[in-house]
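User: Please fill in residues for this 948-position structure.
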């Protein structure tokens, strides 16, 4: 039989449809999930960046106030200012309150008040009297009474004539920070357009501040005020696809939420997310098509092989039928009780028993398999009682060797003269082969019927000379004709569309005359008027009665025709998709090393497609020299090991511009596993590379901003470290002046004074250098060092803040510690971060105690810093233990996550501990935390030593 004439099964089309639908659903599902997940992630990232910018906006305002406070501290703790409040001397005004004093200090107002609250001196453009708002708060509100010692100060925001301003007030004390307090100094700096622009430049986003009760608030501030009334802490507002803004309230100097601050930033993250998802969707379609084809082709091959096996099985069935005809027959007689009285000699071949072993020794039912023997015996004797004959009763027989055969039993009753049953005479014919063949044939028949049903194939027989036509049941169903209708060939051809009738009739006649088989695709019109495509096949045959016929089949191929059309449209869609995604197609012939690039691939590589011959040399001329060896190595790995080819490389266009290319390819092998080709795609990722560089730059800037933010918190301590040496220099200069006036300055006294000045200058230079090195961007330079020295250096920058905040500091630094291989300035950053966190946690606990949330009588802030060698672990342990607010387990589980903070908005970026953990990881160390809510926290840092 010619296998090419066998119809293609319906299952192959059905498989294609299922795979196509599955791929479409999979692509849609993946894209939908990706859209929801990725865009949700980008939205959260955008919101996170905005929240961090809000935090930075709070911090930059707070830093500006702290900067003003530091400047004010230099003026308020000065003997000359102390005297001026008392005597109002003109010399102080001429020497210090010059016309450019406010510009030098970068403030708008300078106010001197005595202890009663009366104005001693005012300085500011158009300032003639103490503003009513300041008078209401500091004089009438008795805020001056809180400025009682060197640690006390008042700072914050206030509305002056409806305009937001930063205000700082400190008590006037001597240069040694002692009293009694003679009055107060107040610095004022308005948050005008210039100041807001300067603050915006610091953090890289736009900032605006409005009074919450303003008469003509912009629209965004009005919406934010409504959100705050509803209880929201931050109001987020999106301005189309261009920008996103965050609004938050800031308290005035009295703690009242009196200002709304706006932070705006462009929506670059969301735009990048949309572009990324678009490219992902295009790539997903391409991958889905490739995946669907890769899955369908093996299945189609498997179905075709199964069809061939089915044809062979039909041939085997004919052999089984011939063998089933050759069987043996055993003649027997039994008495009325079933005992054999006679058995023919064939029993030895069929049963395995000699006739003498059965006659008078065994009953017929003894040969039945034991599991159903009793039931068989009862049914047999029921027939005996009726004295009925039986024919072709199929039943199993257990041979002497234990094997089971099947026999067809015929039996006739033997009667006595009085009509009673004497016994039965009959025969057993061995039909085991036939039985097995019949069982197999039935199974094959059912399988063939199911296969033909799935493939929608049915048969026909015709003779055009006699107008004979015979249909199988399937044809009636296919053309929707009545089951009792038996048309001739001429009438049957009318179910085809007119343009096919004459052609099909000629093909059938030619097949009958010449024996030439045929196959053609035609269109039917059913009895109900439905039109569909079918494939008609025919082959000449001679029946047993000598008549000539054409045997054929009919198969509904409507779905296949639709699939072919869909495949054609799919190829067009694939070409359009590749063009839309700007993806080029390429292939490499491994034997010839020839490359094929389509037009888009050539344009992406900067290659002239008109002159490109596909040689290796032509391709590598376009590739950046630094990437050539890497590409060759990846190609060799793919060819030799079958690994995917997935490089990213640079190409140089004829105009000299550099472009980034991403390529993907898979190896094609022959049946023996030899490599033949690499097929793949490539696309331009230059924009993605630029976006990646921008994101990396933003990350570096964010880490540096966190370090500078920490440095801003240390300005008070730095001012103290610089003011003390300046005080020494000033004291020596004053002493020299008096000795010169009295003509008592000797060389010894001059040398001693100059030595003090030199020491003070070196101390200031060391402090400034320390700050400069700390503020620079990360440069890793590991060397053996003493951890205690880095802790002392961090306390040198933070100690003054702890003193001003009233923190009792307890140090326990073990001497003679083993050396640690590390970078001191990075470790200082970790210690400063842990000290800052402890300070803020203790401030928060103190605040909550005042609010009545905790009952801790006589609470005193305490920080214990210990450095010692842990012999059990063989590591240096640095521990920071505070008695601050502490943390619960949920907070502890997330404390090292980036952007997670336990502080309120405006008092933490959430990056400090994440950065610290990264630094300790680089030092091959470990950082742990122990804490309970309300009991404080203990951070333990373990660092490996070099030599013990």
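Assistant: Residues filled in for all 948 positions:
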């Amino acid at each position: 039989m010619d296998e090419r004439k066998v119809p293609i099964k319906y299952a192959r089309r059905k498989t294609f449809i299922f795979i196509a639908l599955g791929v479409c659903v999979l692509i849609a599902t993946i894209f939908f999930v990706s859209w929801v997940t990725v865009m949700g992630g980008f939205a959260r990232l955008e919101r996170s960046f905005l929240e961090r910018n809000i935090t930075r906006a709070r911090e930059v305002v707070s830093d500006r106030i702290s900067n003003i406070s530091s400047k004010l501290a230099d003026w308020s703790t000065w003997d000359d200012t102390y005297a001026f409040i008392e005597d109002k001397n003109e010399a102080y005004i001429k020497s210090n309150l010059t016309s450019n004093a406010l510009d030098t200090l970068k403030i708008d107002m300078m106010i001197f008040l005595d202890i009663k609250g009366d104005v001693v001196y005012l300085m500011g453009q158009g300032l003639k009297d103490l503003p009513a708002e300041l008078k209401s708060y500091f004089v009438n509100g008795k805020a001056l009474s809180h400025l009682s010692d060197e640690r006390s100060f008042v700072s914050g925001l206030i509305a002056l004539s409806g305009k937001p301003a930063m205000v700082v007030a400190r008590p006037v004390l001597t240069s040694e920070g002692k009293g009694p307090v003679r009055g107060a100094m107040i610095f004022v700096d308005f948050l005008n357009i210039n100041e807001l622009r300067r603050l915006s430049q610091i953090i890289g986003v736009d900032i605006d501040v409005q009074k919450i009760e303003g008469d003509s608030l912009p629209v965004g501030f009005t919406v934010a005020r409504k959100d705050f009334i509803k209880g929201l802490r931050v109001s987020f507002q999106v301005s189309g696809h261009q920008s996103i803004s965050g609004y938050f309230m800031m308290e005035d100097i009295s703690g009242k939420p009196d200002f709304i601050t706006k932070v705006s930033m462009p929506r670059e993250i969301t735009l990048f997310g949309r572009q990324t998802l678009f490219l992902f969707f295009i790539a997903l379609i391409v991958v889905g098509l490739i995946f669907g084809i890769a899955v369908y082709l093996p299945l189609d091959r498997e179905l075709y092989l199964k069809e061939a096996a089915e044809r062979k099985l039909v041939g085997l069935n004919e052999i089984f039928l011939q063998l089933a005809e050759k069987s043996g027959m055993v003649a027997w007689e039994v008495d009325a009780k079933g005992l054999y009285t006679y058995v023919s000699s064939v029993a030895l071949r069929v049963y395995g028993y000699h006739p003498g072993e059965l006659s008078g020794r065994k009953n017929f039912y003894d040969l039945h398999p034991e599991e159903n023997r009793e039931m068989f015996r009862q049914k047999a004797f029921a027939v005996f009682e009726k004295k009925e004959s039986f024919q072709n009763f199929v039943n199993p027989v257990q041979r002497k060797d234990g094997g089971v055969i099947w026999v067809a039993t015929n039996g006739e009753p033997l009667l006595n003269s009085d009509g009673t049953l004497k016994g039965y005479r009959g025969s057993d014919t061995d039909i085991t082969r036939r039985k097995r063949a019949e069982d197999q044939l039935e199974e094959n028949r059912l399988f063939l019927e199911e296969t033909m049903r799935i493939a929608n194939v049915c048969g026909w027989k015709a003779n055009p000379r006699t107008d004979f036509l015979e249909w199988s049941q399937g044809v009636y169903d296919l053309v929707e004709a009545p089951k009792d209708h038996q048309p001739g060939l001429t009438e049957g051809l009318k179910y085809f569309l007119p343009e096919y009738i004459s052609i099909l009739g000629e093909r059938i006649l030619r097949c009958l005359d010449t024996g030439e088989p045929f196959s053609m695709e035609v269109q039917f019109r059913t009895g109900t008027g439905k039109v569909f495509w079918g494939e008609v096949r025919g082959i000449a045959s001679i029946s047993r009665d000598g008549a000539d016929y054409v045997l054929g089949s009919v198969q509904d191929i409507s779905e296949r025709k639709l699939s072919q059309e869909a495949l054609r449209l799919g190829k067009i869609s694939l070409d359009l998709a590749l063009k839309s995604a700007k993806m080029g197609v390429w292939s490499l012939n491994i034997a010839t090393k020839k490359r094929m690039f389509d037009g888009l691939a050539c344009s992406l590589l900067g290659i002239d497609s008109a002159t490109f011959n596909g040689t290796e040399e032509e391709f590598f001329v376009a590739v950046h020299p630094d990437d050539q060896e890497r590409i060759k190595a990846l190609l060799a790995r793919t060819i030799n090991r079958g690994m995917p080819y997935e490089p990213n490389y640079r190409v140089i266009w004829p105009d000299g511009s550099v472009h980034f290319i991403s390529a993907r390819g898979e190896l094609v092998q022959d049946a023996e596993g030899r490599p033949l080709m690499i097929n793949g795609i490539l696309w331009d990722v230059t924009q993605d590379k630029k976006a990646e560089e921008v994101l990396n730059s933003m990350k570096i800037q964010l880490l540096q901003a966190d370090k500078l933010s920490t440095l801003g918190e240390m300005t008070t301590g730095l001012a103290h470290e610089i003011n003390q040496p300046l005080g020494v220099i000033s004291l020596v200069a004053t002493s020299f002046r008096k000795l010169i006036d009295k003509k008592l300055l000797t060389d010894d006294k001059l040398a001693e004074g100059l030595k003090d000045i030199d020491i003070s200058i070196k101390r200031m230079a060391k402090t400034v250098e320390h700050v400069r090195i700390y503020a620079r961007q990360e440069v890793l330079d590991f060397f053996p060092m003493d951890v205690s020295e880095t802790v002392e250096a961090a306390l040198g920058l933070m100690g003054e803040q702890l003193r001003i905040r009233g923190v009792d500091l307890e140090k326990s630094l073990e001497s003679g510690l083993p050396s640690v291989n590390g970078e001191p300035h990075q470790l200082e950053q970790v210690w400063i971060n842990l000290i800052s966190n402890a300070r803020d946690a203790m401030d928060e606990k103190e605040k909550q105690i005042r609010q009545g949330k905790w009952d801790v009588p006589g609470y005193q802030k305490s920080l214990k810093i210990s450095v010692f060698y842990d012999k059990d672990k063989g590591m240096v342990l640095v521990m920071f233990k505070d008695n601050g607010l502490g943390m619960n387990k949920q907070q502890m589980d997330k404390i090292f996550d980036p952007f997670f903070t336990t502080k309120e908005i405006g008092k933490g970026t959430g990056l400090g501990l994440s950065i610290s953990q990264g630094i300790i990881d680089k030092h091959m160390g470990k950082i742990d935390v122990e804490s309970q809510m309300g009991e404080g926290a203990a951070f333990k840092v373990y660092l490996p030593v070099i030599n013990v």
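For context: Residues 1-6, 319-327 have pLDDT under 50 and may be disordered.
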